[in-house]
Amino acid sequence: MCFQCNVGWAGNGHTCGMDTDIDGYPDRSLPCIDNDKHCKQDNCVFTPNSGQEDADNDGIGDQCDEDADGDGIKNVEDNCRLVPNKDQQNSDSDSFGDSCDNCPTVPNSDQKDTDNNGQGDACDQDIDGDGIPNVLDNCPKVPNPMQTDRDRDGVGDACDSCPELSNPMQTDVDNDLVGDVCDTNQDTDGDGHQDTRDNCPDIPNSSQLDSDNDGLGDDCDHDDDNDGVNDDYDNCRLIINPNQKDSDANGVGDVCENDFDNDAVMDLIDVCPESAEVTLTDFRAFQTVILDPEGEAQIDPNWVVLNQ
């Protein structure tokens, strides 16, 4: 049986204590026999911080520590809030000090890093990390090592809004990611994907999930893993297992017993156990949406991502 603490309380389910900020950690340490991490005292009792991040390891969580990196400079004045930098050097004069700037000599306040290699796009000679330098890459921001360009318009298929029709200017008046020269505006199933680019044109499937990469989306593919066994009878719908071996006769094949989508993340902690493309919810790549683009009737949101 699985036990859990009530809302406003935290602990291992057997032992619970008050959790004022409701972030999963008790206000005071609890005497839990199993040493569960959620029995440890909250390092920010009145401020939610589910990750308990503490950059300077001083016992005070970053979210309520006036000097999160412990460099003697208060957060409100620190140009590297989580990285010690007493000198506050900022060579490119953007919003980030050299110590935490992924392009210390090139201004880039957005710190965008497409290939997540630690070097910002503004100063990365290979933005998408596909081994092709930006100056030679026909899709500099989308990985395409083969540089395939079927319509020979200079824009690689991987980022071409009309990969089969020449449109070097990539004109897209309605901003639907389908170039004007091939935009038919026909979307039979209304899932946001034009029929000519929809792997299930008659069945709504906005995710376009295609587990076996056969060009037919899972929602309209009767054999998602392409193992010759129809999905209705396949005990491992997403993993090839033509022999359908099921040692414990529980209806789930041996090869997908605890990991249905074969993404190396156990189903128990997999937020999308039926899609190998998604394993966890990660808001680090968030985008700010301006809710009130004109005037000052509404204060724009300030997103803060905690615990990844």
From TrEMBL:
PANTHER family: THROMBOSPONDIN, THROMBOSPONDIN-3
Keyword Calcium: yes
Protein's UniProt name: Thrombospondin-3a
Biased composition annotated in UniProt, kind: Basic and acidic residues: 190-200
Keywords: Calcium, EGF-like domain, Glycoprotein, Repeat, Signal
Boundaries of every TSP C-terminal domain copy: 284-308
Region (Disordered): 75-226
Keyword Repeat: yes
Organism: Xenotaenia resolanae
